[in-house]
Every structure is written in structure tokens, then in C-alpha cells.
Amino acid sequence: MARAMFEYTKTVLKKVSFDVNLFCKEVEKAIQRLLPHEVEELKLWIISLTEENPQLSQCLIHLKT
Question: How far apart are CA 19 and CA 1, in angstroms?
Fold first, then answer.
């Protein structure tokens, strides 16, 4: 079940990546929902996503916790 939540979170983040504020809000939600090792995996995934969309890199601050 937890893996399904991780994949769902990635899908949502892809869909909202056009809006930085919305993307950041979804990242905050993901941190609350996901397991610690999934948050680390999400961080790596977001870093790779920011190569295509550099404006999203400001949301990485939420993952520094």
C-alpha cells in the first residue's frame, strides 16, 4: 500500500509541476504521508525533475528537514 502512495504522489507532482506554489504544497503533503525512506527517494526524484524545470528547485527546501 505504501508503495502505491509513493507512485500516486509522483503522479500528482508531475501534474502540478506547472505551478511552483501548488507543487510546493503537494511536496509538503507528501512529506506527511510518505515513509522516511520514500521521502528520501522522492527527494532524488524531485532533483531529477528540477533539471527539466529549474523553477521547482525552490521546493527542495521542504525536503531538507
Answer: 28
